[in-house]
């Protein structure tokens, strides 16, 4: 089984968000593996361990090499190789351009399963996975919380409003992972050492035309009023005042 | 210029979010609604668009991205539509990008604003708002509660007569987990608990009954999801769900930046925390500094009366 894992490098959640002239100042950003994609790596490695095959990490990013160490950590989990597509002026908010470049690379890889995260925690589009599947002409299942493989057939559980949709499919298939999917292991020291010798390829790719919508202006959300503390003689007094406010001011109950 | 709204039904009714989307679309052109499913015709007719196309078929019993994408694209092409709108539901977030890829259009997911003044969507878990002003054809999904719903009324109805392709996906069932509980992302009130509760038993004893008493959905911070007290489907925040209810109650939650990302778009926020310095109070419209084990039982019994 040939598995391609899509790993997006995203700004660290602690990154400072500062707007300069309507643009986010990205100069101080540190990048990390998109948290959902770690589940994808782990799941892929588990399938490989059970059924044999190969796990390839595929990531499209800029020429910034500072991400390589983090990608190596994904290989310590058990992926066999990494391919990083390096693109000048790469941006994470161009799902259709990025899906085009990624699907072109995948076409040459004869993948049985393509697996990624449900969404990037940078732009929250949840778009790249379904777009790649469409470009490859294969089905996809998104937001999967459990994926099993028996006799060549996948069974996925996908969270929907009011329940879990149970879907069966044979390969090729693209799946995006929801957080609870599986527990990501802590690699042993020997796996970390071994990962340093695994193939790690950087390929230069050209930018492509797309219909992605450009952001004209960024802003910080209006600061919430907030800060109102309800004072009172006793807990009961505070609770009464809260209920009163919820009824008369907020009108929510 | 025509605009397509992909509606969803829930039992005998069109979903509230779909009526909200129909209302947004009405400002953009002639609106054609599409509803796909099995045995959904009566409910689908309630979608508030002037024309409704219904694809009611055995093969559409469960949502399927390949089949639904094909149907939407066929209708877009037949009507020379320039926009497709849907709710940012589990279906909309899955279908929207695939439809955009099929049509070769741009995609904007989870929009907070959509209209002639442009489109606004959250970046970095809502810590930044990104505005665009495109006039090109686009596919949009719209966040729940961002707009008021249109009145329920029925337009002219047509049946979809095109092809439904095979997809290779077979849905065997929808497992009803947590039946009877309210969906976090659709709830108008969310009651969330955090590590201040000290144990999973206390979550069950304090958060769930308070939520039930208020007709609310029960949510959680990541700390207690990671601790295994509740499943990830309860998690609110940057790596959980984004909720925008009328009222959000944060109980024993400190208000870490990653948690705020998922709930700071709520209309009203209540925080109950024993630490007056907890960052959650900075975003709360009403805060109570105190012991949750004293406050919550009081609140629950008073609300029940
Ligand atoms: C990449 C990344 C992603 C993350 N994503 C998320 C996410 O999606 N959602 C999320 O929530 N977090 C997320 N986090 C974690 C986040 O940083 C916090 O660790 C987490 O939100 C803390 O949860 P908490 O508020 O329940 O716990 P704590 O921070 O421990 O807060 C507990 C609070 O309870 C109060 N308390 C204690 N006892 C009582 C009492 N008896 N009565 C009243 N109050 C009491 C305390 O004063 C304290 O403020 C993420 C972190 C990272 C690094
Ligand atoms: N540049 C990229 N390189 C590799 N995978 C990506 C990239 N962008 C998105 N993905 C995959 O698509 C998922 C959803 O991303 P997004 O559509 O940006 O929300 C991610 O979790 C990754 O698995």
The count of helical stretches of chain A stands at 6
What binds here, in terms of ligands, is: flavin-adenine dinucleotide, adenosine monophosphate
Radius of gyration computed on alpha carbons of chain A: 22 Å
User: Which CATH C-level class of the largest domain in chain B is it?
Assistant: Alpha Beta
Query: Can you tell me the residue ranges of chain A where pLDDT is under 50 for at least 5 consecutive residues?
Result: none
**Major sheet description of chain B:** 7 strands, parallel
Overall pLDDT level of chain A: 94
Strand content of chain A: 25-35%
Mean pLDDT of chain B: 93
CATH topology of the largest domain in chain B: Rossmann fold
* H and E order of chain A: EEEEEHEHEHEHEEEEHEEH
- Unreliable stretches of chain B (pLDDT < 50, length at least 5) are none
User: How much of the residues of chain B is beta strand, in percent?
Assistant: 25-35%
CATH topology name of the largest domain in chain A, in short, is Rossmann fold
User: What is the SS-derived class of chain A?
Assistant: alpha/beta
Please, could you describe this protein's structure?
The complex is a heterodimer of chains A (253) and B (305). In chain A, a hairpin with a 2-residue loop joins strand 3 and strand 4 (23-24). Chain A is an alpha/beta fold. Chain A has six helices and 14 strands. Chain A folds into two domains: 2-204, HUPs (Rossmann fold, 3-Layer(aba) Sandwich); 221-253, no CATH class. Chain A is globular and about 65 Å long. Chain A starts with a strand and ends in a 5-residue tail after the last helix. Chain A has helices at 35-51, 68-77, 95-107, 128-136, 189-195, 235-248; strands at 2-6, 9-11, 19-20, 23-24, 31-33, 54-61, 81-86, 113-117, 140-150, 153-160, 163-170, 173-177, 200-204, 217-219. In chain A, the strands form three sheets. Chain A has a nine-stranded mixed beta sheet, sandwiched between helices. In chain A, strands 2-5 form a two-stranded antiparallel ribbon. Chain A has a two-stranded antiparallel sheet with strand order 3-4. With 305 residues, chain B is of the alpha/beta class. Chain B folds into two domains: 2-159, 3-Layer(aba) Sandwich (Rossmann fold); 184-304, Rossmann fold. Chain B contains nine helices and 18 strands. Chain B has helices spanning 16-25, 41-44, 65-78, 90-103, 200-214, 222-226, 257-263, 280-283, 292-304; strands at residues 2-7, 9-10, 13-14, 30-37, 51-56, 81-87, 106-111, 113-115, 118-123, 128-132, 138-142, 156-159, 170-175, 189-193, 217-220, 247-251, 268-273, 286-289. In chain B, the strands form four sheets. In chain B, strands 7-11-6-1-4-5-12 form a seven-stranded parallel beta sheet, sandwiched between helices. In chain B, strand 8 (113-115) and strand 9 form a beta hairpin. In chain B, helix 3 (65-78) packs across helix 4 (90-103) and helix 5 packs parallel to helix 9. Chain B is elongated, with a radius of gyration of 21 Å. Chains A and B meet through helix 3, helix 4, strand 9, strand 10 and strand 11 of A and helix 3, helix 4, strand 7, strand 9 and strand 10 of B. Strand 14 (217-219) of chain A pairs antiparallel with strand 10 (128-132) of chain B, so a sheet runs across the interface. The site of adenosine monophosphate (AMP) has 22 residues of chain A, from helix 1, strand 6, helix 3, strand 8 and helix 4.
């Amino acid at each position: 089984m040939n598995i391609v894992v899509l790993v997006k490098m995203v700004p660290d959640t602690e990154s400072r968000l500062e707007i300069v002239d309507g643009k986010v100042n990205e100069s101080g950003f540190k990048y990390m593996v998109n948290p959902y994609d770690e589940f994808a790596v782990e799941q892929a490695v588990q399938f490989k361990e059970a059924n044999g095959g190969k796990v390839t990490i595929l990531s499209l990013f800029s020429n910034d090499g500072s991400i390589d160490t983090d990608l190596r950590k994904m290989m310590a989990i058990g992926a066999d190789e990494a391919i990083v597509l390096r693109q000048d002026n790469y941006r994470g908010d161009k799902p259709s351009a990025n899906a085009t470049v990624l699907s072109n690379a995948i076409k040459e890889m004869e993948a049985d399963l393509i697996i990624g995260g449900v969404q990037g925690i940078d732009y929250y589009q949840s778009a790249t996975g379904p777009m790649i599947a469409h470009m490859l002409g294969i089905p996809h299942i998104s937001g999967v919380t459990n994926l099993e493989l028996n006799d060549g057939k996948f069974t996925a559980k996908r969270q929907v409003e009011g329940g879990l949709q149970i879907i069966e499919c044979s390969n090729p298939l693209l799946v995006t992972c929801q957080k609870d999917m599986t527990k990501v292991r802590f690699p042993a020291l020997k796996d970390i050492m071994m990962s340093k010798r695994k193939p790690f390829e950087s390929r230069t790719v050209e930018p492509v035309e797309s219909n992605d919508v450009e952001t004209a202006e960024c802003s910080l959300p209006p600061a919430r009023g907030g800060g109102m503390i309800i004072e009172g003689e006793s807990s009961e007094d505070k609770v009464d005042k809260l209920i009163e406010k919820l009824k008369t001011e907020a009108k929510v109950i | 210029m025509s605009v397509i709204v992909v509606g969803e039904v829930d039992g005998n009714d069109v979903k509230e979010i779909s009526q909200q989307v129909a209302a947004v679309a009405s400002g953009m052109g002639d609106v054609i609604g599409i509803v796909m499913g099995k045995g959904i015709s009566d409910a689908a007719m309630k979608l508030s668009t002037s024309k409704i196309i219904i694809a009611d078929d055995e093969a559409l019993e469960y949502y399927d991205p390949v089949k639904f994408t094909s149907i939407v694209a066929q209708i877009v092409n037949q009507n020379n539509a320039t926009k497709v709108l849907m709710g940012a539901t589990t279906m909309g977030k899955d279908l929207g990008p695939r439809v955009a890829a099929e049509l070769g259009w741009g995609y904007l997911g989870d929009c907070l604003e959509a209209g002639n003044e442009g489109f606004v969507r959250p970046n970095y878990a809502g810590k930044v708002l990104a505005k665009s002003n495109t006039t090109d054809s686009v596919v949009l999904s719209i966040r729940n509660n961002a707009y008021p719903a249109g009145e329920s009324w029925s337009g002219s109805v047509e049946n979809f007569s095109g092809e439904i392709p095979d997809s290779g996906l077979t849905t065997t069932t929808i497992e009803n987990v947590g039946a009877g509980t309210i969906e976090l992302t659709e709830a108008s009130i969310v009651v969330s608990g955090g590590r201040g509760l000290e144990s999973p038993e206390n979550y069950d004893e304090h958060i769930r009954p308070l939520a039930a008493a208020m007709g609310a959905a029960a949510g959680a911070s990541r700390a207690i999801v990671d601790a295994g007290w509740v499943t990830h489907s309860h998690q609110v925040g940057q790596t959980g769900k984004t909720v925008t209810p009328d009222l959000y109650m944060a109980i024993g939650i400190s208000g870490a930046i990653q948690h705020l990302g998922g709930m700071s778009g709520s209309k009203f926020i209540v925080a109950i925390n024993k630490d007056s310095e907890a960052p959650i109070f900075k975003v709360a419209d009403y805060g109570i500094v105190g012991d949750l084990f004293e406050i919550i039982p009081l609140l629950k019994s008073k609300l029940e009366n």
